[in-house]
Automatic annotation (TrEMBL):
<comment type="similarity">
    <text>Belongs to the GOSR1 family.</text>
</comment>
<dbReference type="GO" id="GO:0005801">
    <property type="term" value="C:cis-Golgi network"/>
</dbReference>
<dbReference type="GO" id="GO:0048219">
    <property type="term" value="P:inter-Golgi cisterna vesicle-mediated transport"/>
</dbReference>
<keyword id="KW-0812">Transmembrane</keyword>
<feature type="transmembrane region" description="Helical">
    <location>
        <begin position="214"/>
        <end position="232"/>
    </location>
</feature>
<keyword id="KW-0333">Golgi apparatus</keyword>
<dbReference type="InterPro" id="IPR023601">
    <property type="entry name" value="Golgi_SNAP_su1"/>
</dbReference>
<keyword id="KW-0472">Membrane</keyword>
<dbReference type="GO" id="GO:0006906">
    <property type="term" value="P:vesicle fusion"/>
</dbReference>
<keyword id="KW-0813">Transport</keyword>
<protein>
    <recommendedName>
        <fullName>Golgi SNAP receptor complex member 1</fullName>
    </recommendedName>
</protein>
<comment type="function">
    <text>Involved in transport from the ER to the Golgi apparatus as well as in intra-Golgi transport. It belongs to a super-family of proteins called t-SNAREs or soluble NSF (N-ethylmaleimide-sensitive factor) attachment protein receptor. May play a protective role against hydrogen peroxide induced cytotoxicity under glutathione depleted conditions in neuronal cells by regulating the intracellular ROS levels via inhibition of p38 MAPK (MAPK11, MAPK12, MAPK13 and MAPK14). Participates in docking and fusion stage of ER to cis-Golgi transport.</text>
</comment>
<dbReference type="GO" id="GO:0000139">
    <property type="term" value="C:Golgi membrane"/>
</dbReference>
<dbReference type="Pfam" id="PF12352">
    <property type="entry name" value="V-SNARE_C"/>
</dbReference>
<keyword id="KW-0653">Protein transport</keyword>
<dbReference type="GO" id="GO:0031201">
    <property type="term" value="C:SNARE complex"/>
</dbReference>
<dbReference type="GO" id="GO:0005797">
    <property type="term" value="C:Golgi medial cisterna"/>
</dbReference>
Amino acid sequence: KQARQLENELDLKLVSFSKLCTSYSGTRDGRRDSSDTTPLLNGSSQDRMFETMAVEIEQLLGKLTGINDKMAEYTNSAGVPSLNAALMHTLQRHRDILQDYTHEFHKTKANFLAIRERENLLGSVRKDIESYKSGSGVNNRRTELFLKEHEHLRNSDRLIEETISIAMATKENMTSQRGMLKSIQSKMNTLANRFPAVNSLIQRINLRKRRDSLILGGIIGICTILLLLYAFH
């Protein structure tokens, strides 16, 4: 009965403890999203509530551990049968519940501490930013102007480099086209130089054909005349 009573109390405490962790995270996130300069209200009260609930849960876990130890001692005593399955099952069930509650408590506590540490770090960063903004407004303005001017200069340098690269690519293309035109011109000159030689060769062939025709015609004529003379004599 004592173990079940402590387990019920622990269950309620752990549910409240988990809700506290969730509400702590949601409240901090909501304030950070709404305004970076809004102070974290109720932060200290939530921290005190966390510490109080953690101590209470640790005390209940300690009491439940003591009850489980007493039940184990009872089952190991000489007057209790060692093979009572129901009794051993009940003891193991209470041990499992204690282990689950202990694991859940440590997990929730670790998550809460991690969230609080993160919020503390973010809060210090926001304070540094606000102090920097409020303490050096003029210097910040000059720094912003210098940064903008520096960015403009970098953009101008980038545009100039792009223009130079485009001009170099255009120059390379024009050089390549000029080489192609020179190659075409040389080929045309070569063909033009070859045409007179071909014409002269064709003329020579035609002259040789005419000469051969004249020679053949003369031979045929002489032969004809000789035949006619021979026939009439």
